[in-house]
TrEMBL record, chains A, B, C, D, E, F:
It comes from the Bacteria. It comes from Terribacillus aidingensis. GO terms for molecular function: exonuclease activity; nucleic acid binding. This is 3'-5' exoribonuclease. Pfam families: HD, tRNA_anti-codon.
């Protein structure tokens, strides 16, 4: 049975550990202070109110602390809330650590790095290979830590690298089915396409958009970076321009942020593979909590559709 | 070297066999009859004028005849034309047959059937498997002969079956990468999604749209057919409804002809896999005739884009 | 003077009978239970809170009970609320019945059936007549009971049949003005166009969308049903296909749910007549509560417009 | 049997009278002059070339002359052309007059005027009635002569008045079905809605757009005219403003030329009734020449759709 | 230091005069009356609650009174609120007047009138000059008092005239750069373009839309007015029509309320100059409260964008 | 009187010098060679056919030669054509030079450079000034020679620099009217905004799009260039990022090629000033050939509108 907080329903009793993700103090209409806590584990979050909070409580229950909590799940204005019945900080011999409560990719950083490296090793075009390797070396740490997005898909630790590895796996299969694909170009485009996010987002955990992210955007940032890398590597071949085109066009059209639509076969593929992996990850996250025979909540990033899980999947 | 008529350029000399695909008589301004011939092989078509055509010529040079022709390729109003210098009907001992001049899938009907059968064999859900098998039995001949479309992609003999097989291969790989996919549902959707085209189009060769195709369309035709098949097979399970939904939604949205958008994970995938294979086939057909460093003609079915073939693919 | 609850304003005193349409229990911040009641008659609904509800109250005041209530109309967050001053269940000798409090068509089921039958009797094409009669026989009970929609227009008992009869009357007049119209085709299309809603919606009262309604939709459901009916009636004429086209195209375009736009004169008419009757009914419902010289609330289903009732209509 | 030139097909022999609608001189590649004639009757037009035209021919065959012509219908670049075998001017005792060759409404001007008058007579609101009567008096002659549009619908003599009368008939029936309609407002709106076209178009026959038509448009022209009429009639009531709104909004939305969308019930109806009559007239003109079982040409003003005439209408 | 209420942040103490812009009574959950006050000066507004309001308070604190208030700025549901600690009505010897608390144009009415007059004086075309002068005379008082819009831009006393004067200044410069501009036509269009707002809006202060404003709109109102003025001035020249076109087209396209797009050079310019001044005024209002290095709130009238104030503007 | 070829109408006789802009050989239906010449001066182009061209003619009449030609202007398929009556090459003592026949900006390169330099001199922010100066130095020659676009506006020698200078003049005036504008940022944005076109287009005369222009585009090219310039100049200030944003956003929105919409006040202004100058230049080019009282041809780049030149401008 799945048992993270993300799977709890109204009426369920909870008695276990959770991480405080956010803690805000406010004053109730009776004049007493209370804390609004966002508690979570790697399956989801829930809000809880700690009423009549003393200054010591305030001091104690802060973000990034793990707590032991007993309570019951209620509904409040259509959202779940945990009614706290007992709460304390986790203690050393509880054997729990904050990082156990954070969602992360199903592969470790080491596994991700190894797989990325092996795809680069497969590449035969030296220009594309050198540029790709340059970025993997220079950005390795962040690339292995960042999420792929603020929300919607791969919004977890190592999400970006996991997204890239998943896309590379699809690319490898499509290359088998359509041999006319230029594998090196496609691999390079996939590995580099979102590296601009390392500057577009503020950090690996709980990221927001940077000023540069808002004014320039990860697409143009990365186009620049490739030009700069090529100058440093003294590569003046057409591959540089085509690779920049891959990056610039990977959102598919102007309305979606790409200054050019894909005009090279592998650029078109990069766009589609990106879509597939983002959609499959989004659906996996959402449908995991839907019972057979039910519809999901509306998914904003997928035209606000509500998806159905067939009842015959029950068996 | 590639040598079909589809690869000839202005100024090239031609001296070989071609199939007459269409022959129309008209009268020139000097009052003499002439024939406009569309000549072709499996790589493309070219127009040719046979001036001062005698009644015997008219009789002789009709559609579906193979001819031996010498001539030179000219440009006329921006399109290629073959200027005929000598022409005769092919003779028995020339050893050429009309069906050698028709484009067809890279797999034979036998290979296609075998591969389709093996995918159905993989299916575990008996309802989905029985319905799929019902259509393969009932429509086998047409399914193996029809093109997938009138133009744009897979517009050749066995194009529909080849399109289906290519999609199934992609599906199998995606199932490996995303194990939460319901393989049976996806396979069934892929195999059945375009069978309505067997009634939407007028025939396997040189097809046009039927009245039913224009008024009802292959999507609604097939939804009906599935309902009917289920009644005949006495299957009353939810699979029937979900399979109908797969068919109804496979064009993705209302503007593209689907009365419902995909609302089931596998329906979304069916739509994307259909897109990938159609695009890859279109690009393969178009880019094959483009030299490295050049742009293709505009491709209407792909938002009128003109694609670039990188010069570095030359080596 | 109009006196249903739908016409009450802030400050009005109410002292009469209402039907409980919905009753939900909740717990107030003081820890006591209260009931949120949706009370209504055939002119509208109003919310009321029954504070400090005892278990007996909970037992007593349930959906579908008629109550006698005294109170005053207040505003709460921009919506009207009935502040309950006295409440009791209706008693036998009060002489009131739940079904008096439900909005229904201005014609009885018998009148509707008679009028439908007479239109079918007018039809001369035997194929169209037999198919139409088939559905009237097989779905008579539901057809006479269902609303035409969940909200917006004809959202009352017998709404669907009343909508159909109104459309038939318009059709008869247009046939007089434009004799080239094929009356039989148009009548058949009108009578059948929304019968798929009997499966799209969950029931005659307080309907919601069924899973089949969401995944297949009333348009495709009915196209199927016509094909099936024709098979049962052993009709293989073109009328079947054209009638299916009428159904498939009656929403006018892809964005509005029709997989084909109207491509037959009577299909175009069916779409327009459907629009007229839906709009006139919507406006009638909304403008009825607007005073001359005022604007209505915004009407979502009519591009969110707010309609004006001319002051000179005051007399 | 229908026998106007509009019904002739390739290969048909023609031997009758036609009106020269346009005559243009040009010089052929052999240096000789020829005339391009547009010949027509009330069913349609056809182009014809008069080769080797002498100066006398040029003088003789001019626009608005009736000719007797023998010839055969050919196709030239996809359009029909009449190959002239013999031609002469009509003579007095042929008993034919130019105005017999011009398409006109099925009602005479007298009938149209009488019917318009009787609708105005039905009106009860004196302000609306007086304004309407004002325009009928002041613009009677043009109103009875102009077409309703340059092309697409009611593009014939008296087309505007016939369009108005047809719309009034629909309005009368809808008033019976929906008694809440304000008949006077709707009638007034219908009668006046297109009177601005008398200034937007250059004349009753062969009209083009005036400068005022292009810069101001019939909608704003007529809104002005109503304001002016009211001032002359010293009417200062709300009816004037609401009537202006009817005119301003009758194209339905901004993209279609209306500065305001319909915000009054009768304005919405005016827009829909206008649509119905325009569409029915367009379809009647187009479908009249289509054989049962065939599709029409594409109709630009109806989203470029090609309409089907059911084969079962054949009997 | 800027010190109007519009610049206060959470935590700031306030102790000064404010104007009561709106005062509404309501009853709290404890059964006691309270007042919701909107308090403001020429830099902005803030909400305040006066709890336990006595009937005397109700009487005292009404719209358009100036008060002296002490309090602290809090946040409530994301919006600022002034927590009242002390409040009293302003007294005569406080030396404050309501009109000091209202935002107004940076030029006085006299200055605005003088500048308008001088632009009209520059005009050389007598027809355009006379029509423009006619409106300035007839509408002088309102024109100098009204805002240019209900919100977004120039939403202050004399905003309309200030908007016009700013546009005229731009026009004068563009005329210098592009001498082919017809200055008279452009000046006339600018001065008249929004005069219809004097009837579209209900008054100079705190305006709402009139019925005429909603049903006819300032664009059509003004087109009428120009026609009427020309008749009164007995001007029958083309200038009238072109000036009407300028007004009708100044919103640029149908979707934005113009029944005709600009079709005259100066009409196109009028539209653009209107946009520039509206945008510059909007940005000036919004960015004034943004610190260097920060983003503004989202600006609805500018496609909901959030603008950045560069940090390097700090110095 | 204006007398360039661009002002000639059907029937006009021509007898003067023209530049051969293009010369193509073809074979007529009579088997003889002919030349299709595009002849032009600084007011426009016209096509001419040189029939029965000898090999010597072919040799003689090539692009970039000036000829003396006599002929008459005809219409052919709706376009003007010059019927050649006599033709010869210009001779040295005719005193004509090819570059007299090419359209160029109304300012000389020296004047343009001087004005650009003076605007840069006005700048006070050293970072912005140094970056701007860097580009003026490095690209001076091309910047002073290139057109601003392939067609539509400023499509002449020095068009780009003239466009920039015109925009700077507008900017200076707007700065006077709206003092809150950051002049340095706006000037820098204007001067640099289209420098990417020096790589997007193939050259100063008769330019086409380069591969880099199609795949990357002048917007992204220039964003890169600024990043590179800043690195070379060792400027690491925020100005670099904001300047890149100006370039990236200057087309206004995604659909028009900008990966980011303007999010800084001066970026919004840059976009609008660019529009104004492009539109004014387009209109000036088009309206110059339209007589008062006439409409222009449709202008594709301005939503296909046809503009009216008022008749009252005649005087």
């Amino acid at each position: 049975m799945k048992k993270g907080i993300g799977y709890f329903q109204v009426g369920d009793k909870f008695d276990s550990y959770l991480l405080i993700k956010q803690a805000d103090k406010a004053v109730a209409s009776n004049g007493k202070a209370f804390l609004t806590l966002i508690l979570g584990d790697d399956t989801g979050d829930i809000e809880a109110k700690l009423w009549d909070a003393s200054p010591a409580d305030e001091q104690r229950y802060q973000a990034d602390q793990v707590i032991k909590v007993q309570g019951e799940v209620n509904a409040f204005r259509g959202r779940l809330q945990l009614k706290i019945q007992a709460i304390r900080l986790a203690e050393p011999n509880d054997g729990v650590h904050p990082h156990d409560f954070v969602k992360r990719a199903p592969l470790t950083k080491e596994q991700l790095l190894e797989e990325l490296t092996s795809f680069i090793f497969e590449m035969e075009n030296p220009n594309l290979q050198r540029i790709t390797r340059y970025f993997l070396s220079n950005y390795q740490e962040d690339l292995l830590a960042f999420p792929a997005a603020v929300r919607n898909h791969h919004e977890f630790v190592s999400g970006l690298a996991f997204h890239v590895v998943s896309m590379l796996r699809i690319a490898r299969e499509l290359k088998n089915l359509y041999p006319e694909i230029n594998k090196d170009l496609l691999y390079a485009g996939i590995i580099l396409h979102d590296i601009g996010k390392l500057r577009e987002l503020s950090g690996a955990s709980n990221p927001s958009y940077t000023i540069e992210g808002k004014l320039i955007g990860h697409i143009s940032i990365m186009s620049d970076e490739i030009a700069k890398a090529a100058r440093e590597l003294k590569i003046e071949a057409e591959e540089v321009m085509v690779l920049q085109h891959m990056i610039l066009s990977h959102h598919g059209k102007g309305e979606w942020g790409s200054p050019k639509p894909p005009l090279v076969r592998e650029a078109e593929l990069l766009h589609i593979i990106d879509l597939i992996d983002a959609k499959m990850n989004t659906l996996q996250r959402v449908m995991d909590k839907v019972a057979p025979g039910d519809f999901s909540e509306r998914i904003f990033s997928m035209e606000n559709r509500s998806f159905y899980k067939p009842a015959f999947e029950r068996e």
